[in-house]
Amino acid sequence: MEQIFTLGFFITLLAATIRLSVPILLAALGGMFSERSGVINIGLEGMMLIGALFGVIGSYVTGSPWIGILFAIGGGILLALIHAYMTVSLGVDHVVTGIAVNILSVGLTSFIFRAMFGITTTPVKVNAFKPLAIPGLKDLPLIGPILFQQNILVYLAFLLVPLASLILYRTSWGLAIRTVGEHPKAADTVGINVVKIRYLCVLLSGIFAGVAGAFLSLGQFNMFVDNMVSGRGFIAVAAVIFGKWKPSGILAASLIFGLADALQIRLQAVGTGIPYQVFLMLPYIVTVIAMSGLVGKTTAPAALGKSYEKN
Amino acid sequence: MKKDLLLINLVVPILAILAALVLGAILLLFINVNPLEAYSVLLFGNLTSLYGISEILVKAVPIIMTGLAFTFAYRTGLFNIGAEGQMYVGAIAAVVVGLKLGHLSPFLAIPLSLLAALIAGGIWGGIPGLLKAVFGSSEIIITIMLNYVAVYLLSYLVDKPLREKSGFYPQTDMIGENAFLPVLIPNTRLHLGFLIALLFVVLVYIILWRTKLGFELRAVGLNLHAAEYAGIDVRTKMFLALALSGALAGVAGFTEVGGIHHRLLDNFSKGVGFDGIAVALLGQATPFGVVLASLLFGLLQVGANSMQRSVGVPANIVYIIQGLIILFLLGGTILARRYQKKKAKGVA
Amino acid sequence: MQPILKMINITKTFPGVVANRNVNLEVYHGEIHALLGENGAGKSTLMNVLYGLYQADSGEIYFEGKRVNFESAKDAIRAGIGMIHQHFMLIPVHTVLDNIIMGLPGDRGIFYDRALHRERVLEIAHRYGLEIDPDAYVQDLSVGAQQRVEIVKALYRKAKLLIMDEPTAVLTPQEVKELFSTLKKLSQEGMSIILITHKLNEVLEVADRVTVLRDGQVIKTLNTKDADEKLLAQLMVGREVNFVPAKSPCQPGPVVLEIKDLVVKNQRGITALNGLSLTVRGGEILGIAGVDGNGQTELAEAIAGLIKPVAGTILLNGEPIVGKKPRVITEKGLGHIPEDRHKRGLVLDFTLSENIILQSYYCEPWCGKFGFLNLNSIKSMAQELLEKYKVKAPHSEVAARTLSGGNQQKVVVAREISRRPKLLLAVQPTRGVDVGAIEYIHEQIIKERERGAAVLLISTELSEILALSDRIAVIYKGQIMGEMTNDNPDINEIGLMMAGIRKKKEAS
């Protein structure tokens, strides 16, 4: 057993942790904006799924993974618009709508995939994102291989954390978002357009989740398979709660979930005698533990999940 | 007043179904399929034969159970998104009983495997219930996470400890024949599970609307604070609601094992848990509405398979239609209420 | 002189209700104009129309001589109208500064220059003598301080007309005095102020003119120097007001409720009751007066078993009930009209009969063997009760949500009284209900006292306390400040105690 846990093991483990935390981080940051404005979004899972497929389609059609990302964003926006219209304009229960969005996404993605590529057994190959080592930094001992030999989306995702912080706490937009999520009527009385803010935040979550999905299909697996998101969108929802609706907390939560994911892959690979299914359960069990007792409900935005009707 | 209820409970669902079908038709046009041809197979292809109709009922059985499961928790104000996992562990329990006790009399083997499925599902639903009651953890997230855990648990069991003796496929041996659910109509697959599901429909209705437990659960669901004020132990009821909801979903695993597969295999019945949510919403979270909606979903899913065979349309289109039905229904209900309010205002 | 505001023939309807009918209102520069009316007279609706939160069905609004049509609060704010709502529109988890600048555009692009705003906010606060701390969190402020934040918030947006909706409801008499002097100072500097209120003495004390609303219509506009309480009351209610319901002399029986040194922490962990003691005897009404938020909610919830006290004892008929479950306490003879009928008192989507058996659903004869409900006997009992207590409802199987506030409250009162409680705990029993229902509920409470029940009445309406109580106790910061019998009580002394100042002797 001791030979397993070498320095090399830890370096690859941590590098994988960073990489695997990205889809959760991206989706969770988007989910944070949505929830901060008061809209629960468990449709993140479906938005990631459609992002994963559209990313592949975009890259397949144009040959550019960047165009793929744009496609993924479009897919995310499409589902986010549905979610926003249902929850914000009509006032349908947020959780129920999110479930419907997920069901729709499962159907849409598998149908479109088959309609486009036929019922194949060989995965469709597309141009994906390649690792981009940062000159100078990549050669740093330990840190280099862990942090600076990732693909470009990884760097962008981590840069989004301080950016999200800046927007949320330093700008008029951020104050408006936080106000709407705490007390929409008060926001209304100072002239903040509650509907507009909520729409924008839900759309933002769709964009982020779409990119997160494309990261899976273009930056990690380099293909699309049915249901390939396999709960990462839901884990992202958990990360928002576990991260107490703060960018820094969400970063920490995403890294924990990324570590659980990385650990299960590494441990499967080294062969420990423990059934591999136990490792596959790990990220989900970690989420259950994280949601139990470790979090208080007090920090949730006060108007979370509540529809606002003006008249 | 009566007319208003008719609009919400009947006209809106029908319109939602039609609108979803129309949108689905547009998708079919995109892939160069004649929607009329495809839909005649999807909707009516299986209604012309007894076998076809029986297949629809067979498909509806587990959906009725997971639909009841969602309804039961929903009426207590909770979202059980974990019917899928609860069904899996129910199936595991039913198979274990079927393997070990399948040689007993059917009058023992069948009730025992039903009981085992109820208990296993109840435990799987009870875990999020307990976490909700003790820590206030989101039952939504926990039930979803436990779905994945159940999937891998099943995968492990059929891979290792419960693998068939020949060891060829990752699946269990057949359960004892005395644990098979008897077929109701010869030359069809319609099995006793259908009647068992209908029995649970009535049971859930009686529990929710005719007993003090149901009164308590619905009070918690509609107004937690008032329930507390009324001396109802809110946490216990939440736990109970999720555990019983899980037990109902566990029965879906029992009917699939005892009535259809007679053994356990990886991913033996995908998506039934989520179909249950859809039918519960479509059925307005009432037990009888769940039955009607499940029959519709059964029809669509069996029809979609026929459509894939005869017209070459990917069967997955049925999930798009199902998702659209829910969205149109939810949105349509609100729009209909707004329309009624506006009309009421015009009269006043 | 041109009025700053002219509202002409404003009509606003909601489904089934005409909230404003052809209302006319003129407000002059530098004037304090009171809008007087009962709950539901249409005052708040009218002001929400003015502020752009509601759109009028018909009518015209002129502000500073120009025809205006505010589609949102943003338009109204831009034109120079500020509104301070009865329930403050503040975010508890934001700082005072963030509460003041929220909704304003950024300074450099979308970024705020908080230092600059901070300076300007302090400058305005100083100019009007409104002491605030921009860096404090609103959730840590007293109600009076929160109100100052609201005023500064409006001034910061350069308001020329300030609408104040029931600003004194949550203040102590002393805080009210301070507020009024602030308002007078503002009006001297040219600010126009509309004061929404249903309190006659406030109108006479601070307003220059008053417009009386009743049932959505303007009854009269007059100068306050030509008015007195009696006249205003008549205009407001439309008939002679029976201020004090008749009741026989008090004949106290044995002690029913005895509370000793009760300590309770609220949900946020802050001490809400700090060693509170009181006793209530059968056949008497003890009224607890006090400003909202001084532990009234926690006192009621502790008695009812809904929160667990940290220390102290509560005896009901001599039996300790601390730590007992709500159901046990109910069975020992508590009837509880809760503070918020929508939150606790009713399940709005339950039928009336389901609401009527809310605490007794598990008992014979409503629940038979094996836990089955006896729907027919429940229905007939409910129907009977609705008739006996004059609840206006088509039948017992409609949802509670469909009833008016007054009738909903009557359902709660009927349910609690019909169980013939030994202790009736009535918390804000007439909040937000119409005059007819208020009188009816007051009669029922007095009837309970004559029957021999002990009544603990908790109300922030001093007039209600004075009208019903045999004894009056004043609660302040979780303690009883003092107690007196209700024959010619010294209102001034009650007011001082509500502000936390114990008797005059101790003060000197």
User: Structural class, from secondary structure content of chain B?
Assistant: mainly alpha
Q: In total, how many domains does the architecture of chain C comprise?
A: 2
Q: Strands of the biggest beta sheet of chain C: in what spatial order? A: 6-7-8-3-9-10
Question: What composes the largest sheet of chain C?
Answer: 6 strands, mixed
Percent of residues in helices of chain B comes to: over 70%
Overall residue-averaged pLDDT value of chain B: 93
CATH superfamily of the largest domain in chain C: P-loop containing nucleotide triphosphate hydrolases
Quaternary form: heterotrimer
CATH architecture of the largest domain in chain C: 3-Layer(aba) Sandwich
Low-confidence parts of chain B: none
CATH topology name of the largest domain in chain C, in short, is Rossmann fold
In the CATH scheme, the class of the largest domain in chain C would be: Alpha Beta
SS strand fraction of chain C:
15-25%
Structure description:
- The complex is a heterotrimer of chains A (311), B (348) and C (508).
- With 311 residues, chain A is an all-alpha fold.
- Helices cover 70% and strands 0% of the residues of chain A.
- Chain A is built from 12 helices and no strands.
- Chain A starts with 6 loop residues before the first helix and ends in a 20-residue tail after the last helix.
- The model of chain A has no long low-confidence stretch (mean pLDDT 89).
- In chain B, helix 4 runs parallel beside helix 6.
- Chain B is 76% helix and 0% strand.
- Chain B has helices at 2-30, 35-44, 50-74, 83-101, 106-135, 139-159, 193-210, 212-222, 224-229, 234-261, 272-282, 287-310, 317-347.
- Chain B has 13 helices and no strands.
- Chain B starts with a helix and ends with a helix.
- Chain C is globular, with a radius of gyration of 25 Å.
- Chain C is built from 18 helices and 20 strands.
- The termini of chain C are far apart.
- In chain C, helix 14 (405-418) runs parallel beside helix 15.
- In chain C, the strands form 4 sheets. Chain C has a 6-stranded mixed sheet, with helices on both faces.
- Chains in contact: A-B, A-C, B-C.
- The interface between B and C is medium-sized, with 23 and 32 residues.
- Chain B: Its main location: membrane.
